[in-house]
Amino acid sequence: MEAAAARPLQVAAIGVCAETGFWDSLRRLKLDVLGTDDSPIPITGYYTPRQYEKIASLFRICPESILPPSANSFGDRNNCPVPGTLLNTNNMRGFQNLDRALILRAEAKKILHDISSGNVEENPSLLLRFLVISFADLKNWKVYYNVAFPSLVFDSKITLLSLKFASSALSQEEVTSLSKAFIEWRKSSETTVVPFFLINITQDSTATVRHLKDWKACQGNGQKLLFGFYDHGNRGFPGWALRNYIAFVSLRCKIEKVQFFCYREKRGHPDLQQSLIGEASFLAPHGWDAPDYVPEAIGWEGETIGKEYKEMKPKEIDLSSINPASQDEEKQLMHLKLMGWRHFAVNLDKLSSARCLLLGAGTLGCEVARLLMTWGVRKLTVVDNGCVSMSDLVKQSLYTDKDCGVPRVTAIVPHLKERCSAVEVEGIQMEIPILGHNISASNAASVLDDCKRLQTLVDSNDVVFLLNETRESMWLPTLLCADKNKIAIAALLKYDSYLVMRHGAGPGIKGGGMDEVIAQIENLSTEDALGRQRLGCCFCSDIASLVNSEYTGTLDQHSTVISPGLTSVASGKAVELFARMLHHPDEIHAPGDIAGTDTEHQLGLLPHQMQGSLSKCVLSTVLCNSSSNCIACSNAVLSEYRRRGFYFVMQAINCPTHLKELTNISDLKKPFACSKISASIPVNLEKLSSARCLLLGAGTLGCDVARILMDCGVRKITIVDSGRVVVSNLARQSLYTSDDRDSPKASAILGHLKERCPSVIAEGIKMEIPMPGHPVSPNEAASVLEECKRLQELVASHDAIFLLTDTRESRWLPTLLCANENKIAITAALGYDSYLVMRHGAGPGTSRGNPDGDAAADKLSAEDALGRQRLGCYFCNDVVAPVDSVSNRTLDQQCTVTRPGLASIASGRAADLFTRLLHHPDGIHAQGEIAGTNSEGPLGLLPHQIRGSLSQYNLLTLLGYSSSNCTACSNAVLSEYQRRGMDFVMQVINEPTYLEDLTGITDLMKSAAYSQVEWIDEADDDEIDML
Predict the structure, then answer these.
(1) Stronger pLDDT, 837 or 520, i.e. the higher one
(2) How far from 436 is each of 447, 549, 653, 924, CA to CA, in Å?
(3) Which end of the chain is more exposed for a tag (fewer CB within 10 A), N or C?
(4) Residue range(s) defining the domain that contains residue 461
């Protein structure tokens, strides 16, 4: 075969095999290491000469490729390492907006520099430098990508002068000698991975293969010199690598006419029958070696030389089939890994191996167990002695009507497993021996067995949660934890207040050379093992012994009557305290922090005790050291227990006054019990049951709020959501189970509400909420308009609307509609470790004269219908219009990267705020109150906004009035909406900045810029929502 005449060089493009394992490695690297870093990543590809006669070899990108060549030891005769660059963007929009031509020229510039600097002679594979651009959609387990092999393009063209098969271009002696030379070259591990080389053939037909850096020594000696390379192709023209190779020879070696050799193999042996020898000419362009010279480039896979550029469609690979057995667990833990992108690297190994013992499987136990799974805990033991009853269903988040009559520890196990299949959970039905419950002679043996069994459980677990319903049932676990130096976290509830605390470490031993066994009993220190003063337990501030409160209290006292949202708040606090403590280097020995102090830890403060009240909207952190008179953790009690063992325990159970004598308590204080509910607190069940509540969002917040509302007595609930249940939802969104996977949330949630409260009237509506900044195409306009009208009808037909949606902009239209219809609106929004719960103010009244018809739109008052200054809405502090907050964001901003306990706390606050507002005589017109002021309301304080932080442990009640520049509730916006209706809404959806002009924000910002005023947008950038 010989070229008939000189012609432009035609080459065969390189095909790429990007293996699934590579993309999975990239997915893990992005999730576990890179985070938001989208810097270029050096990678390695693998090139090989053609191996089969009719099949071109593919360029491999495999799991080993994720390392750069400098750190990559992988490579062999069929895998020549080639350096490459990976650009992985943080979102799809970033991938789509990449200037592909620009980045390709930048890579070509690197190749040109390698040629001019001589780098290619030392590392010839640089001529094959490749580029990968990608977007790893971690949430959906997909990757979108394109691959390029940059090839230099100059004004002067490469001309092919001749082309023959090597067997016909060489003599038989030369073919034989060259075949032997190639066998030796390919046999050596040092040379076989070098894809570009020299072929030197002497006059006596002896051929040798030499390194490219020897090109100067091989010139001018009258011998035949060929520039050889591994050719991947199987056709009658050279492979893609020849283009940059000829440029190198011309520019670096100053050879205008290049004789080249395209080396191919057949089943691992040199194939000179199909290898090619040719000659090409290329004239070096003027000025190519100037420092600022940037060559043109081609090389995107699928791009055709000489044809007009067309937009490339990305390739797509689905990773959902990889490791299906472990994929569910990875999806469940993704939100914890995403926390490390901006905030805190969660120690998943420590969390998954932590053995947690939960004493109590009731209201607190259900919530704590579920939230622990959300934090990545995978070893749970649950102890309880009760059975599920009908009254438990709306209070205890895991149980359904099918569990009634079943022991809680039996029922809770499958409910945890169906939310997280990887969890190891054991349920143990047993009664915890309780102080003051006298033991009869016939029961003594079984109670003693229970004591020993509890001791074994405490010994075999790392953390013990005291979630018992009575205070005296916490005594023995507290004693055992102090004795074994185990982490103990207690949660105690009154009607509308709570205490969450961690117990301090057990005592160390004083010095003195005493036998260790004796010292453990008789020589206990007042400090812990690290020499620090011990923190107290939940009995240290009582300075009292306990008696049986179950029989001395009234029904409301020993039935654990609590405000419905309280359990969610306390459970969230307890689990967050556990996670914070587990990540502290000193763990149980960590000193207690007080709110207002500084901390360098990314999870924030680590308090000793948190005391909070729903009715007063307060949260305080308290520090209490271990008391020498404590009936549970004092040295006197621990010494006696270590000396006498369970004989002491049995004596204390039967005769609690023994503890008073042992600890030298002079006065017996009345034991802790749930506060009696005041008869002056009227709960209007009829008002609650008839209130029609619309929940926008059925994710983490939506599930919790719906369940708590039912516990409050609400019986009419409509839920709107457009999403489907995915595996990552199961542990975090309290109502869904594995049976709901891929079902619409709006329909899946209904059955779970009915299971817990058969009398609830619930409706689920699957629909998108139209949003500003999400432009609508002409084809979509009609359907979006229908959704706007449907939402308008839903708001008009309900009494209260909960804004629990995914994004900031999705709250705009509901806020506008609520202000226009004067409807109660409650917003709950989450940041990484902070939350906002607020009620929107009433809509505006009208000015005097009360004009009818459309004229009323021009006469809106600055006050509400009662003549009071209007409270602000969610958007009143913004200085920009709501826009698309998702497309340009990274995955941790798009997904639920919040501390797992946060949603429970915010949900409890939101439901509680609603019930207080509903019972206020002024309803939506009620004025906002600030914590610390006296409130005349029978249900306590009624704030406007509640802002809380888990890292700083503060709780603020704020008051803000409606802004005349608000993009959602200002008179300018409401007037325009009342005048134009949905035409106005559609304009805002397509042009959100129109709101800035309408409300005067544009002029305000110009004025601020002119005055050099720095505006701070109070929009929380961390405010993200549910997957």
Answers:
(1) 837
(2) 13, 8, 5, 49
(3) N
(4) 326-434+451-508+561-632
CA geometry: angle 62, 66, 68, nearest 5 deg = 115
Residues 6+ apart with CB under 8 A from 600: none
Helices (H), 549-615: 555-558, 566-582
Whether residues 211 and 244 share a domain: the answer is yes
CA-CA distance, 848 to 829, in Å (whole number)? 37
Q: Over the stretch 533-576, which tens digit does the pLDDT of each residue have? A: 999 999 997 643 444 454 444 434 444 578 899 999 999 999 99
Choose the catalytic residue: 712, 895, 966, 969: 895
pLDDT in tens, 928-980: 999 887 655 667 899 999 999 998 888 999 999 999 999 999 999 999 999 99
SS3 of the chain: helix, strand, coil, percent, to 5: 35, 20, 45
Name the helix (H) or strand (E) containing 975: helix 971-980
- Strand pairing category for 463-466 and 207-210: unpaired
| CA neighbor of 773 nearest in space, from 967, 983, 989, 966 | 989
Q: Is 233 within 8 Å of 56 (Cβ atoms)?
A: yes
pLDDT of 253 above 50 = yes
Following CA atoms 678, 684, 689, 693 in sequence, which dihedral angle do they give, to the nearest 10 degrees? Answer: -100
Residues 113 and 173 placed together within one structural domain of the fold? no
∠ at Cα 355 (351, 357), nearest 5°? 125
Domains of the chain: total: 4
Question: From the centroid of its chain, how far is CA 427?
Answer: 30
The DSSP letter of residue 862 is S
Q: Is 540 a catalytic residue?
A: no
CA-closest candidate to residue 356, choices 524, 193, 582, 203? 582
pLDDT confidence tier of residue 4, bands split at 50, 70 and 90: low
> Please, what is the angle between helix 408-417 and helix 363-374, to 10°?
20
Residue 1017 pLDDT: 45
- Kindly state whether residue 967 falls inside one of the protein's structural domains: yes
Same domain for 600 and 699, yes or no, is: no
C-beta of residue 51 within 8 angstroms of C-beta of residue 268: yes
Provide the pLDDT for residue 669.
44
Neighbours of 947 (CB within 10 A): 18
Which structure tokens are listed for 969? 């509730």
**Judgement on whether residues 178 and 102 belong to the same structural domain of the protein:** no
The residues pairing with 801 across neighbouring beta strands, listed in sequence order, are 694, 825
Cβ atoms of residues 194 and 211 within 8 Å: yes
- The closest of 776, 780, 831, 825 to 802, measured between CA atoms, is 825
**What pTM was estimated for this model as a whole?**
0.89
Burial 632-661 (b: 16+ CB within 10 A, else e): bbbbbbbbbbeeeebebbbebbbebebbbe
State both tokens at 451: 């004591």
- 485 CA to centre of own chain: 33
Domain shared by 356 and 481, yes or no: yes
Is 212 domain-assigned? yes
pLDDT-derived band at 796 (thresholds 50, 70, 90) equals very high
Residues 6 or more apart whose CB falls under 8 angstroms from that of 849 comprise: 859
Using the 8-state DSSP alphabet, how is residue 667 labeled? S
Q: Are residues 285 and 399 in the same domain?
A: no
Report the pLDDT value the prediction gives residue 923, as an integer from 0 to 100: 93
Q: Does some domain include residue 77?
A: yes
Number of Cβ within a 10 Å radius of residue 779: 7
Tokens (6 digits) for 821: 């219809």
Whether residue 120 contacts residue 248, with contact meaning beta carbons closer than 8 Å, is answered with yes
Task: Give me the residue label for tokens 């923190």.
Answer: 535
Radius of gyration of the chain (CA): 37
Rounding to the nearest 10 degrees, give the CA dihedral for residues 989, 993, 995, 1001: 160
Q: Within a domain: residue 664?
A: no
Alpha-carbon span 638 to 212, nearest angstrom: 80
